[in-house]
């Protein structure tokens, strides 16, 4: 809703980048978490705050994409005293995947988050029958409730 009603507060630039479904899910979760925090505590909690989202291919490794979320014009931002749900989610969603990672900076002028992930490149199609699909494990990149500090009760 913020993007539609406050489009002037966003600058979004970058080329089309194909991604695997698992990466799309991780990016969706990450951007949702960043937006939620920007609304509650960051740039989008202030009338003149702005969010800049940009991405580009890595010049040395074109299969890697760098997405940068930057906030400006919001209240003073300080490093939290402990890692909360959002920080753990961001770190775990992209951990352990080749070349992927997250750099989170709580700069005075606003949060800056760099997410590095792999673009999807053409490869041979894989066919999975219905019986095989029902037995497949969930994507391994998703953090468990325990890894997110939620204990065994889940969400």
Description:
This protein is α+β, with helices and mostly antiparallel strands and 155 residues long. The chain is built from four helices and five strands; from the N terminus they run H-E-H-E-E-H-E-E-H. It has helices at residues 2-5, 21-40, 85-94, 130-134; strands at residues 10-13, 50-57, 64-72, 101-107, 110-118. A five-stranded mixed β-sheet has the order 1-2-3-5-4, with helices on one face. Strand 1 (10-13), helix 2 (21-40) and strand 2 form a beta-alpha-beta unit. Helix 2 (21-40) packs antiparallel against helix 3 (85-94). It is globular. The two termini are 24 Å apart.
Task: Please specify the SSE layout and strand pairing.
Elements: H1 2-5, E1 10-13, H2 21-40, E2 50-57, E3 64-72, H3 85-94, E4 101-107, E5 110-118, H4 130-134
Parallel strand pairs: 1-2
Antiparallel strand pairs: 2-3, 3-5, 4-5
Helix pairs in contact: 2-3
Give a brief outline of the structure.
This protein is an alpha+beta fold and 155 residues long. The protein contains 4 helices and 5 strands.
List keywords for this structure.
155 residues; alpha+beta; 5 strands
H/E series:
HEHEEHEEH
Q: What is the 3D shape?
A: globular
Question: Major sheet: order of its strands?
Answer: 1-2-3-5-4
The portion of residues assigned to helices is: 25-40%
Gap between N and C termini, in Å? 24 Å
- β-strand percent reads 15-25%
> By helix and strand content, what is the structural category?
alpha+beta
Mean pLDDT over all positions: 80
Question: Mind summarizing the main beta sheet?
Answer: 5 strands, mixed
- Which residues form runs of ≥5 with pLDDT under 50? 124-142
The gyration radius over C-alpha positions equals 17 Å
Compute the number of helices: 4
Tell me how many strands there are.
5
């Amino acid at each position: 809703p913020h993007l539609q009603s406050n489009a002037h507060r966003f600058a979004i630039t970058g080329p089309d980048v194909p991604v695997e479904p698992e990466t799309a899910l991780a990016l969706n979760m990450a951007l949702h978490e960043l937006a939620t925090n920007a609304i509650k505590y960051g740039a989008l909690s202030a009338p003149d705050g702005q969010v800049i989202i940009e991405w580009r291919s890595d010049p040395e490794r074109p299969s890697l994409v760098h997405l940068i979320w930057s906030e400006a014009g919001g209240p003073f931002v300080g490093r939290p005293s402990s890692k909360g749900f959002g920080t753990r989610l961001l770190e775990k969603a992209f951990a352990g995947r080749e070349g992927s990672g997250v750099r989170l900076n709580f700069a005075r002028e606003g949060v800056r988050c760099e997410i590095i992930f792999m673009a999807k490149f053409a490869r041979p199609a894989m066919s999975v029958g219905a019986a095989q699909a029902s037995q497949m494990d969930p994507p391994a990149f998703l953090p468990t409730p325990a890894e997110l500090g939620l204990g065994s009760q889940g969400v």
